[in-house]
Automatic annotation (TrEMBL):
Cellular component annotations (GO), alphabetically ordered: plasma membrane
Protein name: Major Facilitator Superfamily protein
GO molecular function term, any single one: transmembrane transporter activity
Sequence ranges of Polar residues compositional bias: 420-431
Keyword Transmembrane helix carried by entry: yes
Lineage, broadest ranks: Bacteria, Bacillati, Actinomycetota, Actinomycetes, Micromonosporales
Entry superkingdom: Bacteria
Length: 431
């Protein structure tokens, strides 16, 4: 990771992202707590999270919109708009204003998808292909570190200074990110592509994901795992209550342990990508969740600590493997749509599994559900592992022979994404 952090452009981007990711980490839980204080309803507080997730259905439209504009100015503008979107929170006074919190939560969820798609394309432009895994690993390590302190800090700040001041802090984070991005050098623009009719462009990201073998297997395998991995969001409370016979607040201790595992996974993920390839790293991340879930089916504190630590390691491995694969195997002009489509394809099953887990835990033994999660994720990890050859590690990739006649000028070394899509029908033809 030191190599990519030595690059002034990425180091500058990293500084801006640190500010915006900090704002993100403190806002989400604080908004739900605010609704709980205003209404006294746990259900209405939980609906705040749903409001953030709901805009995921618009991901194809968001990706199409992102891909129509240059990455750096678009990312800058998106951070400015996100800061402005928080301003309605300053008018919230009582339970009658809860709709404003929901509105901000929904717009924030839409902004999150937009920023993620734009960031994926910006990193693809700024960072050489061989350093993509390191760049994604750095960002995932920071995200996992913020998971340790962000939600708790947000809750503490809300209790100390109130929701309006917290909204102001969030705005400062996004404005800081925008200010830092203005100092980034302008990346070399991607070659122009032929514009299709807008219905075809909307589905271009999904068609690319379905047409590229490595991406197709990655999303099928991870999607299968996601159908059950979300169960753990509810099952962990039953594990603490029924299994360990402890207060629900003890879940916070386990979340902290999981965050430590996330830091370890983020630090190790670039080395795993170099050794196993992107699909192999994704397979390891999904498969690691299997023994963790199986261990949680047996209520023992020492075993439980080891299990949540392993579950924490799995998350950044899956994210780094998947994001790096998308960036490597997608033409630059299509990265936004592919990244947004991935959010929808993966996030949909996750949202469904969270809701299903909350329902099932009421009448099915949590141990049986954890066993189901463990078996399903091991199967998904095995399916992914069998396809690891689709994204062999860089050292194991044979050189690709030149295509076409003699070129008029020396060409730059092509990355795997360009090689994969050079002859694919799913990419828009070059002008």
């Amino acid at each position: 990771m030191r190599t990519v952090l030595r690059r002034p452009d990425f180091r500058l981007l990293f500084g801006g992202l640190l500010a915006s990711m900090t704002a993100e980490s403190i806002l989400l839980l604080a908004l739900a707590i605010w609704v709980k204080d205003l209404t006294g309803s746990d259900g209405l507080a939980g609906a705040t999270i749903f409001a953030v997730i709901a805009p995921m259905t618009l991901a194809p439209l968001v990706g199409w919109f992102v891909d129509r504009y240059p990455r750096r100015p678009f990312f800058l503008a998106a951070n400015l708009v996100t800061a402005v979107l928080l301003t309605p929170l300053f008018t919230v006074r009582d339970a009658g204003d809860v709709w404003l919190v929901y509105l901000v939560a929904a717009l924030y969820g839409l902004s999150y998808i937009t920023l993620s798609a734009a960031l994926s394309g910006l990193i693809r432009q700024l960072v050489p292909v061989e350093l993509l895994a390191e760049a994604n690993g750095v960002l995932q390590t920071v995200r996992q570190g913020l998971r340790l302190i962000g939600p708790l800090a947000g809750a503490a700040l809300y209790a100390a200074i109130g929701g309006w001041a917290l909204a102001g802090i969030g705005m400062v984070g996004f404005l800081t990110a925008a200010a830092v991005v203005t100092a980034l050098p302008t990346p070399q623009p991607a070659p122009p592509t032929v514009r299709l009719r807008w219905p075809a462009e909307l589905g271009a990201g999904l068609r690319h994901l379905a047409g590229e073998p490595a991406l197709r297997r990655a999303l099928l395998g991870y999607g299968l795992g996601s159908l059950v991995m979300g169960f753990s969001e509810s099952l962990i409370f039953a594990y603490v209550d029924q299994g360990l016979d402890r207060d629900a607040a003890f879940v916070g201790v386990l979340v902290t342990v999981q965050g430590v595992g996330g830091l370890l996974g983020g630090l190790c993920s670039p080395a795993l990508v170099r050794r196993l390839g992107e699909v192999g790293t994704l397979a390891a991340g999904v498969a690691f969740f299997g023994p963790a879930a199986l261990a949680l089916a047996y209520p023992d504190l020492r075993l439980g600590v080891a299990a949540v630590l392993l579950a924490g390691v799995s998350l950044p491995l899956t994210m780094v493997g998947l994001h790096t694969l998308i960036q490597r195997r997608t033409p630059p002009g299509l990265v936004g749509r592919a990244a947004a489509a991935t959010e929808a394809v993966v996030g949909g099953p996750q949202a469904f599994s969270i809701g299903a887990g909350a329902l099932l835990v009421g009448f099915v033994d949590y141990r049986a559900l954890f066993a189901l999660v463990g078996v399903a994720t091991l199967i998904a990890g095995g399916y992914l592992w069998r396809g690891r050859h689709l994204s062999a590690p860089p050292g194991a990739r044979p050189p690709t022979p030149p295509t076409g006649p003699i070129l008029p000028a020396p060409r730059r070394p092509a990355d795997d994404a360009d090689q994969q899509v050079a002859t694919g029908s799913h990419r828009s033809p070059r002008r």
